[in-house]
Amino acid sequence: MIIGCVILNYNDYPTTLTLLNMIKRYESINYIVVVDNNSTDNSYSILAKEESSKIHLIRTQLNGGYSYGNNIGISHLSKYKIDLIIIANPDILFEEDIVKKMIKSFMIDKNLSAVAPYALNSTGRKTLEPAWKLNNSFRELMQTSKIISKLFKDGNKYSEEEIRINCCSVDILPGSFLMLDYKKFESIGFFDESVFLYCEERIMAVKFKEKGYKSKLLIDESYIHNHSTSINKSIKSYHRKQRIWLKSRKYYLLKYRSSNTGFKVLVHVFYIYLYIELLIIAFAKKYFN
After folding, report:
1. Can you say whether residue 156 is alpha, beta or left, with left for phi > 0 and alpha for psi between -120 and 50 degrees?
2. Burial of 120 by CB count in 10 Å (0-12 exposed, 13-18 middle, 19+ buried)?
3. Is 251 helix (H, G, I), strand (E, B) or coil?
């Protein structure tokens, strides 16, 4: 099997180099493409020094976000007739043994579209939820609110017992580090480039589920994720990050979770409240933190 890895860089070459220097010796990975998402610093010239027959560097014409940049990298890797793709945020670290176990998962289950291990922070603790459920549309809309979501039982979380009972089969895997079957990913049109950042995993999960494909969490394997290190460097404002998140979430809800006109109207109306809520939270963070 031919394995390719895509690493997306934007104004954060030190973090990207740390990962690159770790994995470039991994024999289980045949090609690594670093996509510099039109960085405004000297990332491209520094990363160019790492180019080789195995490590390729591409510079995009614009910073089109996570989906755009990763699709550019995947398109480049397709020239080498790859079978599996690793999507890796620059702020992660993983051992080669994990790559081998991810590959083995695809060899065992031919209906598998995506696989990922548990994410740990730098101290070895579990970070955010390792995977999520796809909720019904109304609950997903309500959970977009930081305040109203607290009134609902958070039904999108898996317990470890549920994951084990389901033989590690889950709906949504985090996009920070995962391996994808190239042909199955191609069949759903790769990442949806209409979202700049956030909700890519949910969109992918919906499309995989519609095709009848499975996603798997490797519950006994883990990697280190210094969560949002690169995002926080490039987008420092909490308010801006939340506006991007709300925009992506709205697109996801309207395109992929709206089954009728009534729900679409509800989304538009509810978003008026969400933007007011965002202003209140931003004001509170600024003056009361």
Report:
1. alpha
2. middle
3. helix
Distance CA 43, CA 33 (A): 14
Would you state the pLDDT for residue 173?
95
Residues in contact with 63: Cβ distance below 8 Å, sequence separation at least 6, in sequence order: 10, 37, 38, 39, 69
Residue 70: phi, psi to the nearest 5?
A: -65, -35
**Residue 145 phi/psi, 5° resolution?**
-85, 130
pLDDT at site 187: 98
CA atoms of 112 and 46, how far apart (whole Å) = 37
Q: Where are the alpha helices (DSSP H) in 133-199?
A: 137-142, 160-165, 182-187
pLDDT tens digits for range 18-73: 999 999 999 999 999 999 999 999 999 999 999 999 999 999 999 999 999 999 99
Residue 132 CA to residue 217 CA, distance in Å, equals 10
Supply the DSSP symbol for 33: E
Asked if the model's pLDDT at residue 2 lies above 80, the reply is yes
